[in-house]
Every structure is written in structure tokens, then in C-alpha cells.
Specification:
CATH topology: HIT family, subunit A
Strand content: 15-25%
Helix content: 10-25%
Number of strands: 5
Order of helices and strands: HEEEHEE
Strand order of the largest sheet: 1-2-3-5-4
Structural class: alpha+beta
Distance between the termini: 30 Å
Bound molecules: guanosine-5'-monophosphate, zinc ion
Shape: globular
CATH architecture: 2-Layer Sandwich
Number of helices: 2
Radius of gyration: 13 Å
Length: 111
């Protein structure tokens, strides 16, 4: 089972900031900004490339969760960035699809 599925199953701890029936958001263990949250579907989908016409609603749902969390953490007015890494060249480390929600400072662009 992957590390994020273990977090979903509460087998390993995480600092959870949002949870509903289908989604979860928790603090990144190695934050790259003052606010760095990961938003995941509870369903194990490996990566963005696995999104298709059948499951594309998940991306919209994750965006709604990200917006809620941004508001909850007080960065809705100052702004934030959403990142989804897909595959090796993007540096994807965990193969359970996730959105990074980054904010709390002026963000630089990394390539
Ligand atoms: P990726 O590079 O796959 O887009 O991002 C994976 C992210 O997951 C990284 O920013 C990393 O710090 C975070 N991460 C990896 N393992 C854990 C963990 O066990 N708990 C939490 N909270 N974050 C993790
Ligand atoms: Zn998983």
C-alpha cells in the first residue's frame, strides 16, 4: 500500500487540515513554503496521466478542496499556487495523485 493510502487509513500519522468522504488534505512533511498542503483523493489513482473522461471530476473536486483549505488557512486573498507533478521529469515522488497547495510568501518559479 502506498504512503498516502496509509495516511487515508490512519496507519501513519499526518497533520490533517481537511477530510470528507472522498478527499483529504494534510501538511507536507517537508514544506517548501510557509503553507504547503497536499490534497488527495482517498481513491488510489497513481498520477495525473490516469485522469480521463470517467474520473475527471476528481480534479475539479480537489480544486474545490484546495480553495476551501486556502480560505481556512488565510491565504485566499494573498494568493497561492496549485502544482501537480506527473512522472519522473516533474519529480513525482509519491505515485498517488496529489495537488500541492503552496502559499504564505511570494513564490518563485522553479523549473
Ligand atoms: P511529489 O514530488 O510526488 O509531487 O510530492 C510528494 C510530496 O509528498 C513531497 O513534497 C513530500 O515532502 C511529501 N511526502 C512524502 N511522504 C510524506 C509523508 O509520509 N507525509 C507527508 N505529510 N508528506 C509526505
Ligand atoms: Zn495510494
Amino acid at each position: 500500500m502506498c504512503v498516502f493510502c496509509k495516511i487515508v487509513n490512519k496507519e501513519i500519522p499526518a497533520d490533517i487540515v481537511y477530510e470528507d468522504e472522498k478527499y483529504m488534505a494534510f501538511k507536507d512533511i517537508n514544506p517548501k513554503a510557509p503553507i504547503h498542503i497536499l490534497i488527495i483523493p482517498k481513491e488510489h489513482i497513481e498520477k495525473l496521466a490516469d485522469i480521463n473522461d470517467t474520473n475527471k471530476g476528481i480534479i475539479g473536486d480537489m480544486t474545490v478542496v484546495a480553495n476551501k483549505v486556502a480560505k481556512q488557512l488565510g491565504i485566499d486573498k494573498t494568493g497561492y499556487r496549485i502544482v501537480i507533478n506527473n512522472g519522473p521529469d516533474a519529480g513525482q515522488e509519491v505515485y498517488h495523485i496529489h495537488m500541492h497547495l503552496l502559499g504564505g510568501k511570494k513564490l518563485l518559479f522553479a523549473t
